[in-house]
Design goal:
Blueprint: H1 38-57, H2 62-66, H3 77-95, H4 110-113, H5 119-141, E1 149-150, E2 155-156, H6 157-183
Length: 188
């Protein structure tokens, strides 16, 4: 697609045409009171941003996920998935005492540079992300005190959770723009 060829903006939402999905079908919306306490609140925000990223990738094929929609950037939706898998591993390395795990994708920027439109690579990227998220979540779940300092870096659990929320939030903003460039679907 030529940079000047812009897809028409659209949404699946019928109730609010500027939203990604109707509120009653949005998996991020929950009825009832907000989470109780600092850790539960941070985990809830993280969960919602993770769901947002998945929603932004839904319904696209491997080529669309790998499309670098804003040249000359190497960023793509698939690159974001791979990048977030890589940073989940990095964060886990910060909070564990053992030897650091190696990079998932090799050299710097390989998470974005290696994001190509191959269905097997897409499946592997989402599997990597799920595995790395689960492993970092499990490591952090061992610590109930948000002020606990953990790992070689002696980083506070709170700091790591806020950093994760920040990283996902920033990249969900990128995902909004990337998705709109791919097929015109608007963010929410």
């Amino acid at each position: 697609m030529n940079v000047n060829d812009r897809p028409e903006r659209w949404t699946e939402a019928t109730v609010h045409p500027d939203m990604w999905a109707d509120p009653d079908r949005d998996p991020r919306n929950s009825e009832g009171p907000s989470p109780e306490g600092e850790l539960a609140t941070l985990r809830d925000f993280l969960t919602n941003y993770r769901l947002t990223l998945r929603m932004k990738c839904e319904g696209l094929d491997a080529e669309q996920l790998a499309r670098r929609s804003v040249p000359p950037s190497t960023m793509s939706l698939l690159g974001l998935v791979r990048h977030l898998a890589e940073v989940e591993r990095d964060w886990r390395n910060w909070i564990t005492d053992g030897e650091p795990l190696p990079k998932l994708y090799g050299k710097r920027d390989a998470d974005f540079d290696g994001a190509v439109g191959d269905p097997a690579l897409v499946d592997a990227a989402f599997a990597d992300l799920e595995r790395e998220q689960a492993a970092t979540d499990a490591e952090l779940a061992r610590h109930g005190d948000p002020g606990a300092r953990v790992g070689r870096e002696r980083i506070a659990v709170r700091e790591l959770l806020v950093h994760r929320v920040d990283e996902y939030a920033r990249h969900c903003g990128h995902a909004d723009l990337l998705r709109e460039c791919v097929d015109g679907r608007v963010g929410q």
